Amino acid sequence: MTFDHLWAGWRANYVSSVSDGPENAGLEDGGDQKACVFCAILNSNEPDQQLHVVFRGKHTIAMLNAYPYTSGHLLVMPNRHVGEISQLSDLEYTDLFAVTRVAMKALNDAYDPEGMNMGANLGRAAGAGIPRHLHIHVVPRWLGDTNFMTTVASTRVMPEALSDSWQKVREVWPS
Description:
There is one protein chain. The protein is of the alpha+beta class and 175 residues long. It has 6 helices and 5 strands; from the N terminus they run H-H-H-E-E-E-H-E-E-H-H. It has one domain: HIT family, subunit A (2-Layer Sandwich), CATH 3.30.428. Helix content is 33%, strand content 14%. Helix 4 crosses helix 6 (162-172).
């Protein structure tokens, strides 16, 4: 398969202007850490079940994605508000990936998926919805877990409530 290229050099100015926006100064609102939804969850006094937090550690937290691709879609992230892997200390880096490994095992135990996606969208251009707080997606997958609804209606059909997913994952998460 070959691809044709359409050159539109004028778009470089547009791309640069978008990249220079306030969301790149720190957070979507220009740098206020209090506006970060992940930091709000980390600092909340609400019960973990209500926040869909399945694990809180010294350096890392794991929670269900509020807008999951599939049941059990977890987000694993450092407790500290950083946007890039290079900003993590060695201890934070090691803990982040150790908890990611535990998350994958928990999802295997809870859901017995046929596969798994694990990755991070680093920066808005890479697809990060919250680019200033690094997070890793851990998503259990099954053959046929996507259907026409995603294509024609931009809608995902979820077979269980987040509260049910939280319960399943918490039950198998090591203490």
